[in-house]
Amino acid sequence: MAYSDQKMSGSKVTALVIVALVHIALGYAFVTGLATNFVKKQVEKLNTFDVEEPPPPPPDEPPPPPPDIPMSPPPVVSPPPIVRNPNPPPVVINTTPNPPPVYNPTPVVAPPAPPAPAPAPPAPPAVSKAAGLKGNPGQYFGADNYPPSAIRAEEEGRVVAKLTVGTDGRVTDCSITTSSNSSALDQATCRIAKSRVRFSPALDASGSAITSSYTLPVRWVLPRD
Q: pTM for this structure?
């Protein structure tokens, strides 16, 4: 009996829930349908009243000019003349200067001191009496001492020799100052002067014999038969 009562109570509760859900659905549908109809009716009312905008006012006409002031055209303004500069400014080119050279000082070596000059030779003593020839030197430059090569070449001429005379009167040196254009005659002149020509030596102020020089001219003439 108790089991039957419980089963019947459950069926009633289920039926009541179903009935409640049905009522809720019907109420939602009713409310939704009424709201939709109301909105449609309000829209139809708004569409029935069209408001026309008034036309725009006509534009204002400019007032006529006063009769006393004559109309005149506006002044013509000319643009200022274009002035061209005949001397345009120079073009400045900015160049980067080269860096200064790196200076590497090098040690300066002083040159060696020049050698001391050689002492000047002593001045020759003043000649009080010049050297003089002994005898006739022409006899030594005759046909007997004529160089054979000069005879074969038929050479002759004048020779001037500078002789150095020592303190003993002998010739110690000989140099040709004027040549005969024959080497055989020039060489024979100095050879004979050193070997055969004799002098009395030159003397200084105190009467002592000194070395001196003497100029000896010699003319070589080919021997004639």
A: 0.46
